[in-house]
Amino acid sequence: MLTAEGLYKRFGGVAAIRGVSLEVREGEIVGLVGPNGAGKTTLFNLLTGMLPPDQGWVRFRGQTLTGPPWMRAQLGLGRTFQVPRVFPPLTCLDHILLAVDARNGARSTPRPGGPDPRDLLTFVGLVGLEHVPAAQLNPTHRKLLELATVLATDPSLLLLDEPMAGMTPVEVQNTMGLIRRLREERGITVVWVEHLMHAVTKVADRVVVLHQGEVIAEGPPEQVMRDSRVVDVYLGEGTRA
Asked: For 183-219, what is each residue's pLDDT tens digit?
């Protein structure tokens, strides 16, 4: 579904991403993990067109991507951010309607049907908040609103950037279930940046570990958790068997 090959990105002569190659297969949930500063968000920015690579290329559903983020969104590549990007004065329902209009307006022939805006808000857990402005939502609800807004664009691949940051244990459990349902109920492939390893190991099919802009390990979660280099640079000595 998505392939990145030999991605490099430098800032001021310092490489933030160093020759990263990545393959995401349709229907997967892939966890992208690594220490702070490993290059995870930079990689997302390269995949979504927010940054141009200095070297390398990205291909999505058989098409090489060279355009800006909005063009990639038209192709079905969606993304959320560490800090949710919402419009404070607009209600939750307004956000969804705006995204639906953008989705339909981008097509020469708007697709009939599509997800019902209120159903999307229910799906992410914002029942009863349809007419509440984003400015009045708590941080977790803002994250869920951003997710619902992206879902309204009808993505086939969704990049989630630390969706559980700042959440309570109960909210983390709910979000883990939500990520599973993205695939099971909506058929969406997910690449997910996360620091909560217990969540990643329970939900992801495969884990990719970045360190200093390079992929140092990838594979099933239980295998990656035992990798000596991953333990040394990220998980810590306390995780050794």
From this structure: 999 999 999 999 999 999 999 999 999 999 999 999 9
Predicted TM-score (pTM) above 0.90: yes
For the sheet containing 29-33, what is the strand order?
Answer: 77-79, 157-161, 189-193, 29-33, 206-211, 214-219
Q: Nearest to residue 208, comparing CAs of 43, 8, 64? A: 43
What is the rounded distance in angstroms from the CA atom of residue 233 to the CA atom of residue 60? 31
Report whether 163 contacts 143 (CB < 8 A). yes
CA angle 26, 32, 35 (to 5 degrees): 175
The answer to whether the Cα torsion of 42, 48, 52, 56 is positive or negative is positive
Q: What is the mean pLDDT of residues 147-168?
A: 96
In sequence order, what are the beta bridge partners of 15?
10
- C-alpha span between 119 and 148 (Å, rounded): 10
- Chain centroid to CA 32: 9
Residue pLDDT, tens place only, 25-64: 999 999 999 999 999 999 999 999 999 999 999 999 999 9
Q: Beta strand 214-219 with 206-211: parallel, antiparallel or unpaired?
A: antiparallel
